[in-house]
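Throughout our pipeline, every protein is held as a single compact record rather than as scattered files. Such a record has a labelled line for the sequence and another for the backbone structure tokens. This encoding replaces a full spatial description with a residue-level series of whole-number codes. For reference, a complete record is included directly beneath this paragraph.
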Amino acid sequence: MTIVASSPAATALPGKGAGPLLRAWRERRRISQLELALRADSSARHISFIETGRSRPSEEMVLRLAEQLDVPVRERNSLLLAAGYAPHYPETPLDDPALDGLRDGMERLIRGYEPYPALVVDAGYTVVAANRGIAMLLEGVTEELMAPEPNAMRLTLHPEGLAPRIRNLREWRGHLLAQMERDIALHRSDRLRALYEEVAAYPVPEERPGAAPAVPVPYFALPLLIEHDGRTLSFVSSISTFNTPMDVTVAELAIETFLPADAATAKYLHTLVG
């Protein structure tokens, strides 16, 4: 699947200055003013003044505090805007020539992972690239769900997507919804919250007798158990992001790979590619 551009997830900007936003991030990270001051080479008094609006932080201080609080790149721009400064991090469209090297690298990476499934998604779980392993799993999914800019959560949980073929759907669904809840808390995205409410409302098919066995103990992580061509394939997933991204678009990309969780799945996938 060719990498495509997708629209960014906008973040609403409160009009109360940077102080309340910084305090909210500090409390979310469960860090005291003193601890944050020590990390940022400042003082608890200055941090208190910033949070209450008695002192306007410099642009450098905003970025320093955001770094110590592990604020997502998009939200760092929001902090700067709230403090009266211009955004520091660009948001380059994924199809921009400046990101040619990034796109080519991701394409090579997920192709090299074949025959195992791998895909790239943005912050809203829009699929921007996928390999043939993913295409194999998506066989039989309706055209509506496979329309331009397909969404990984819809593809997985929709009743006309993969859901009817996922043998441990309740467990896997719970895992995905919990992941989305963490992302919503981190990014405060209205777009992501709307997606969550949509997919959480999808009906869950009733379990067929004997079709959803308990997950065996030997698994080292929750597996995705999915039917394909009369077989049950078993995968565990891993998600990778870019280290110290300096662009909003790049910061919000995630590469998810699916590793066979048993020898039978690995053998079957290699058989498919000859």
Q: What stands out?
A: The chain is about 40% helix and 10% strand.
